[in-house]
Specification:
Elements: H1 7-20, H2 24-39, E1 43-48, H3 51-65, E2 76-79, H4 84-93, H5 101-107, E3 113-118, H6 124-135, E4 140-144, H7 149-154, E5 157-160, H8 166-194
Parallel strand pairs: 1-2, 1-3, 3-4, 4-5
Helix pairs in contact: 1-8, 2-8, 3-8, 5-6
Length: 195
């Protein structure tokens, strides 16, 4: 029997590093930012490319449904990559860098919140989306990896999964999503019971 560890163990070690390095106070700050948006009657907008676009869709689904106590108003959440016709129209007529910024400029208002998901933190369309949200006066929560890039340097709350490969970083972003849903569910249930 071989004494060499299975490659899956090495993958799990990289995932553990990505999760262990998460700033717990940043997780708390993300919950507070989302609760602030909820109580302001705001909408949450989520953006990402590639696998992170799928995470944005997953997050929009989970936040829309998961935290809400029965009979209560839920979070209103939009994944900015889900309208393929609009995304490709903006990319074709303007530039791919504008696919999120154009929608943010048209829709976001005071009280709204942007979640930007990117392993590198440097995708030009996410940078432009963050800048558009800033121009609207809306806070930004970023989920990043690698060195964190522009998003890490300019977001209000940074959930940084340390790592240099996409798989563990993107897995960590999904774990963050699921944690946020559970934390928000507890907060909303506590508020409902206090009424």
């Amino acid at each position: 029997m071989s004494s060499v560890a299975h490659p899956f163990e090495e993958y799990l070690e990289r995932l553990a590093v990505a999760l262990a390095g998460l700033d717990r106070s940043a997780l708390d700050a993300a919950v507070e930012a989302l609760m602030g948006c909820y109580h302001a009657g705001g909408h949450v907008y989520v953006m990402g490319n590639g696998g992170s676009a799928a995470t944005a869709t997953h997050m929009a689904c989970d936040l829309s449904k998961g935290p809400t106590p029965p009979g209560k108003q839920g979070f209103v959440v939009w994944s900015l990559s889900d309208n393929v016709a609009l995304l490709t129209a903006i990319a074709n007529d303007l530039a791919y860098e504008e696919v999120f910024a154009q929608t943010i400029a048209a829709r976001m208002k005071s009280g709204d919140l942007l979640v930007a998901i990117s392993a590198s933190g440097n995708s030009p369309n996410l940078v432009r989306g963050l800048e558009a949200a800033r121009a609207k006066g809306c806070p930004v929560v970023a989920m990043t990896g690698f060195k964190g890039g522009y998003l890490k340097a300019h977001a209000d709350v940074v959930l940084h999964a340390a790592g240099e490969s996409y798989g563990p970083v993107e897995d960590a972003h999904l774990v963050i999503n699921h944690y946020l849903v559970e934390a928000l569910r507890k907060r909303l249930l506590d508020e409902a019971r206090a009424l």
